[in-house]
Amino acid sequence: MNAIQLGFNQEYSEIAPTIEEVQFLSGYALIEFGAPWCPHCQAGEVVIKQALEEISPQLHIKIFDGKGKKLGRFFSVKLWPTLILLKDGQEIDRIVRPTSVEEVRRLTSLISD
Fold first, then answer.
1. Distance in angstroms (rounded) separating the CA atoms of residues 105 and 101
2. Which pTM value belongs to this model?
3. Can you give the pLDDT at residue 6?
4. Domains of the chain and any CATH numbers
């Protein structure tokens, strides 16, 4: 089972979708790259969770990123956490190291039904 089938996961998953699976997603998806031991990810977890509870994105995938991880390199992720908003498999916006609920809300405000 891959991350696309799992949908939202509370923890960073080492099971990541392939680049092709991400490119063929339909609708909106939010991919969060990070690591459970990362202090920036730990600090951002509260604000991210609070903002996402308000909007319930169709798909939120938390990916355990790191050296040699293909999906993170495909999206040129350099700092954690990085949240990338996709529409139909294409990046439409991102935020890096969010520190406020408002930052995440601005990103998710792009999601329209």
1. 6
2. 0.89
3. 40
4. 3-108 (3.40.30.10)
